[in-house]
Design brief:
4 strands; two-stranded antiparallel ribbon; 19 helices; two-stranded parallel ribbon; Growth Hormone, Chain: A; 4% strand
Length: 446
């Protein structure tokens, strides 16, 4: 893996071999995302086998999400300094080991340790963003990062194939004593990780691009002092952190509130996951053409509208009059089809918005994509760790299951307000001839 590196500046153009980098990094990210979130489905049979409480079970997925978020900044910096090819190969092969060992876990503590190690898979995102940004020119970065980010669809892989495969192989024993049922899934993933790692090593260019190879670490971290970076991080919590949180939260929400079975809940959740993942290339393409800022305005508007309706509790107002009588007013009940449709559009907005957030990074920090993208990705992933408990606490405090979407509404409203106030401040400081510009040329003056 000691490949020679080409150090490139911020104004590089799309290089020969960029297509191969994009294809293999997207395949790797899709697989790693599936591995990262596989405990969402495996948790049901794991809970039955080990007799875990709901709280104990929740920590298995939580530690994986946590570890898949906290190292995104170092992974992005390393990709800038030693090349995304090397970092991707290391993560693929290293994740295959704990994934394989999950199949042989025989205690809750062992499961927690292995789930934490499997969580390293989630850190491939920031490495892939830095890798693709180094290979694509400015005019194609939005689309390229959108295509790569569509690997989020890996969150639905285990939900779609897992239950059937688990049921079909339960009680079977395979080569090397590998058992069927839920224990077969991590073994299959481990094999696929090795295969994709070998394919990546063979297919992508050996000579990599590492724009940060010659920079001191202090210079690499310098942009993190800018408030703009932290604003982008909050945006990403809204569009990605909520995506991760809802991907895990919605199956139980459907079961508890609409009384469907788990298989149906998984399919309904997929109608949220697919647009929230597959529309990311569209978000990148739109950001390239009309500007990431305009796309973010539309994203936040749709998210506010959909979450604003979804957060309304089912029921009606009861008014107690002075004469002792009561009357009922404003009845509201959201049926399942309407709920699914609104969640679908919420997912569409998230998918487009995720690409728009990351389009900002190479625009404003073309020579620091690894560090800035890593920090933004880290906070987005941590949002997926902290939001589910917040959903649970607000539900317990209010008694309304729909408080989940109230949390999302408030978060998006904060992001939209911060973005608009920032742009308004820049426009009032700009001259009349430039006040209409709300893309990088204007924000560069702030």
């Amino acid at each position: 893996m000691s490949t020679p590196l080409i150090v490139v500046g911020p104004d590089h153009t799309t290089a020969k071999g960029a297509g191969r980098v994009l294809v293999m990094s997207t395949i790797a990210f899709t697989l790693m995302f599936a591995v990262w979130l596989m405990f969402g489905i495996l948790g049901v049979p794991i809970q039955q086998e080990f007799g875990l409480s709901d709280v104990e079970l929740s920590w298995i997925s939580a530690v994986a999400v946590l570890n898949g978020s906290m190292w995104r900044l170092p992974a992005g910096i390393l990709a800038d300094r030693i090349g995304g090819r090397t970092v991707t190969l290391i993560l693929l092969f290293a994740t295959a080991i704990p994934a394989f060992l999950v199949s042989f876990a025989n205690s809750y503590l062992w499961l927690l340790v292995l789930a934490f190690l499997v969580g390293f898979a989630g850190n491939l995102f920031s490495a892939g963003v830095a890798w693709n940004s180094a290979w694509f020119g400015k005019e194609r970065q939005g689309l390229a990062l959108g295509v790569f980010g569509a690997g989020n669809v890996g969150a639905s892989v285990t939900k779609l194939i897992g239950p059937g495969l688990i049921a079909a192989t339960a009680g079977s024993t395979f080569i090397l004593g590998i058992q069927g049922g839920w224990r077969l899934i991590p073994v299959l993933y481990a094999v696929l990780l090795v295969i994709v790692g070998v394919a990546t090593w063979i297919i992508v260019p050996r000579v990599d691009r590492a724009p940060g190879a010659s920079k001191p670490l202090a210079e690499t971290l310098q942009p993190l002092k800018q408030v703009r970076v932290w604003r982008f991080s909050l945006y990403y919590v809204a569009v990605f952190g909520t995506y991760v949180a809802l991907s895990a939260w919605l199956p139980k929400y459907y079961v508890d509130n609409f009384h469907v079975d788990l298989a149906t809940a998984g399919l309904l959740t997929a109608t949220f996951i697919f647009p929230a993942s597959l529309l990311r290339p569209l978000g990148g393409w739109l950001s390239d053409r009309i500007g990431a800022r305009s796309v973010m305005y539309v994203t936040f508007a749709v998210m506010l509208l959909t979450s604003g309706i979804l957060m309304m509790p089912n029921g009606h107002l009861v008014i107690a009059h002075a004469d002792g009588t009561t009357t009922e007013h404003l009845p509201f009940h959201l049926e399942l089809p309407w709920f699914v449709a609104l969640v679908f559009f919420l997912g569409c907005a998230m998918g487009i918005g995720k690409a728009a957030v990351y389009k900002h990074i190479p625009e404003y920090f073309p020579d620091h994509v690894g560090s800035v993208g890593g920090l933004v990705g880290m906070f987005g992933g941590l949002g997926g760790f902290f939001l589910p408990p917040l959903f649970a606490y607000t539900k317990a405090a209010s008694g309304f299951p729909t408080s989940t979407f109230f949390v999302i509404f408030i978060l998006v409203a904060l992001c939209a307000a911060w973005m608009h106030v920032t742009i308004h401040r820049m426009m009032t400081r700009a001259t009349p001839s430039t006040a209409s510009l709300i893309e990088p040329e204007l924000e560069a003056v702030s």
